[in-house]
Amino acid sequence: MTQEPSTPPRTTVFGRGSYSEFLRIGEILRKETVGGILLVTAAVIAIIWANSPVSDSYFALRDFRVGYEPWHLELSLGAWAADGLLAVFFFLVGLELKREFVAGDLRQFSKSIVPVAAAVGGVVVPAVIYALINLTSPETLRGWAIPTATDIAFAVAVLAIIGSHLPSALRIFLLTLAVVDDLLAISIIAIFYTNEIQLGPLLLALIPLAIYTILAQKYRRFFGTKAWAAWVILLPLALVTWALVHASGVHATVAGVLLGFAIPVIRSQASGGPGNGPGLSEIFEHRFRPISAGIAVPVFAFFSAGVAIGGWDGLFSAATDPVAIGIVVALVLGKPAGILGTTWLLTKTTKASLDRSLKWIDVFGVSLLAGIGFTVSLLVAELSFGQGSAHDDHAKIGILAASVLAALLATAVLSTRNRYYRKLHAEEAEDADHDGIPDVYQQDRP
Q1: Helix (H) or strand (E) segment spanning residue 253
Q2: Which pLDDT value is given to residue 57?
Q3: What is the torsion angle, in degrees rounded to the nearest 10, for the CA atoms of residue 265, residue 266, residue 270 and residue 272?
Q4: How many Å apart are CA 32 and CA 245, to the nearest integer?
Q5: In which domain, by residue range, is 205 found?
Q6: Is 193 exposed, middle or buried (0-12, 13-18, 19+ CB in 10 A)?
Q7: 176 and 310, same structural domain?
Q8: Does residue 425 lie within any of the structural domains?
Q9: φ and ψ at 352, to 5 degrees?
Q10: Count of CB atoms within 10 A of residue 359's CB?
Q11: Which pLDDT value is given to residue 362?
Q12: Is residue 88 located within the same domain as residue 29?
């Protein structure tokens, strides 16, 4: 008798990843939570100061210029925050993305396809919605990329405030989603927001970048256990690369991503083996994550979020500007529609199914959180319209309003599931055999 072939098991979407990935993502999100609270605080201070009786002092501080003009580095403090400090943030974006796809769980196509496709959907749909609303105005259409990014620090700060014990699979999804769409956003900046490229400085930038890459790849061979030697040599090379990219006309934050990509993320490659101490990616992650979350992003938010609203007349002007309307609709409706719609479509067109521990309302809640587009959105708004212009001010008001609205909606949805999330969190923490690894991460072991 011929045996019928068994039906292959369906791929699970948002299944629990490895324990090592759970620990690593948890540590990143804890630091981003603190950074998110600082970011929100800095933005609130900026808005209050910019609309206070001493508002002139805020704008004087933001526009104060410092630097060396012959190297094209005499910039305002606001520009230094956008071009310089955000390069640190995007360095970590490049490092995180490389680690995810080279050494993390997402090196498996079956696990990477969902967050990558969802990120693409979460970029395309908001951009299309904004473009449709501003289709008849070429001047405002330039801001189509403003609602494309997710601010992970702001999002996890919301989770911390509402006390949500979001399951680890959804936390990893949210972080990966934010990192991928940050990369897409910086690619858009490099391609669509570079007006004029100076080939000389751009080609020269390849020289220190190449030396930096070679030294980083052979970290142990060149520097041994002397980590200070790596800092003394690699950091100046990174600064020279950043300065030349800035002088070329390409936005300098692109240099941050390239420098992050150059760092090896596999332990055997980065440090010569697991017994030789932490690799370069771990060292840089440990050193730069607090600088990014605690200084770079909050300072950028402080200089970028300050907008003179102008009372009720100013609010009415912003509310009727298609720039602000397009941003609010794109972030609050377009982001979740793109993310949730793409994820649902993948489950319907492939042999994938949602993990049994989750429901679509959970994915919807995370999709709403992804509508918090703050840091990169503010950056793209300035690149689109120029700092201080009417459309730039209205764009910032739209970004702030959309981020708050998305946060409130996500809070309303996720709070209804908090009791269930606490139950899942308790299960993920249970370690009956006391071996240091929660039991749920050992269930599939032979």
Answers
A1: helix 253-261
A2: 94
A3: 170
A4: 28
A5: 196-250
A6: middle
A7: yes
A8: no
A9: -105, 150
A10: 13
A11: 87
A12: yes
Give Cα separations from 200 to 72, 79, 242, 268, 445 (angstroms): 14, 23, 14, 37, 56
For residue 353, give the 3-state DSSP assignment: strand
Q: What is the mean pLDDT of each run of 10 residues along the chain (446 residues)?
A: 48 66 71 83 92 91 85 84 89 85 73 85 95 91 91 81 74 83 86 83 93 83 62 87 90 89 69 54 83 90 85 78 94 95 87 78 91 88 85 91 93 86 72 66 56
Tokens 């006390």 appear where? 163
What is the identity of the amino acid at 345?
L
State the Cα–Cα distance between residues 111 and 90, nearest whole angstrom: 24
Measuring CA to CA, which residue among 273, 251, 307 is closest to residue 89? 251
Contact 370, 155 (CB under 8 A): yes
Tally of domains within the chain: 2
**Which residue in the block uniquely carries the two structure tokens 């955000």?**
86
Quick one: which of 372, 402, 375, 373 has its CA closest to 301?
375
Residues 212 and 176 occupy one common structural domain = no
**Together in a domain, 126 and 235:** no
pLDDT value of position 439: 59
* Dihedral class, residue 298 (left if φ above 0, else alpha if ψ from -120 to 50, else beta): alpha
Same domain flag for 137 and 278: yes
7 within domain boundaries: no
Give the pLDDT score at 336: 94
Rounded CA-CA distance 174/177 in Å is 5
Query: Does residue 103 sit in the same domain as residue 131?
Result: yes
Q: pLDDT tens across 238-250, in order?
A: 999 999 998 888 8
Instruction: Compute the distance between CA of residue 91 and CA of residue 257 in angstroms, rounded to an integer.
Output: 5
- Asked whether residue 235 falls in the same domain as residue 289, the answer is no
Asked if residue 6 is part of any domain, the answer here is no
Provide the residue type at 273 as one letter.
G
Q: Give the residue carrying structure tokens 């640190």.
A: 88
- The CA distance from 112 to 177, in Å, is 10
CA distance 394 to 386: 12
Same domain, 120 and 89: yes
The two structure tokens encoding residue 82:
């956008």
pLDDT at 328: 96
What SS3 state is found at 75? Answer: strand
